[in-house]
Design brief:
The protein starts with 8 loop residues before the first strand and ends in a 12-residue tail after the last strand. The strands form four sheets. Strands 1-3-12-9-14 form a five-stranded mixed sheet, with no helix packed on it. It has a four-stranded mixed sheet with strand order 2-10-11-7, with no helix packed on it. It has one domain. About 3% of the residues have low confidence. By secondary structure, it is of the alpha+beta class. It is built from three helices and 14 strands. Helices cover 14% and strands 27% of the residues.
Amino acid sequence: MEFNIDVPVTAGDINFATAGSWPENEKPYTLLYDPAEDIKLSNFRVGDVQSVPIRDMRPKKEMLSIHREGFMFADFKSQLAYEDYFDESKLKSILAEEVRNLLTENLGAKACFIHECVFRRRDSELSTDGNVGKPVPDAHTDYTLNYAYKLIGQLAKSDADLVRTRKFQMINVWKPLRGPLRDWPLALCDYSTLVRDDLIQIDEVHREGILESNSVQYSPSQKWYYLSDQTADEVLIFRSADSEIHGEGEPHSRFINPSFSSPTSE
């Protein structure tokens, strides 16, 4: 994404995978639970890349394309009040339908299957069990294209074979529950500046099974963006997989904005 005018840029620290930091005969992995045995939690390293230039996407809202950059943002006024987001019945009956309408309107989706709703909260005492966790400061994608095909089987069920033969995208819809979000915004990498070798397939090992995703190696050619002062009525929409371009997901990471301090982000 090339801009003809300057856009505001901040400098943030993001964790990236360290090239060649895992054994040659092993696939990189990370355990997302505490094993009873004496097993390493991960067989590869991530390192902090400091002062990564992160551009503000807000001035160029109309220029963004989920098909080119891999992300966009849109207005999204939900019927839910803050406390309603913790009511699972309202998430299923109200929010799910609102998200379907959002994706149909903005992406022209013919069908929309909801996978999960995950909350992130910057709180050291908060449990990471279930669908609540802390912000993830590591550059990553949510899953690989191969895993996306498997996920379709779980979501589309009897229609899975039909869906797999058609164009599909896995989409992440991301918003703060309160705004404006300033201290831990989400950074997204312009997909057109990404090289395939920047992505490292890893296994995320949970107690219930294995999810295949990508960790990301840093390259100066990458261009990272964030949405300044994102409100609760704005959503970031970005790809997690795309069958048409045989593409992996959109690299993203939370980062500490050094210019601001605000209440606990959610």
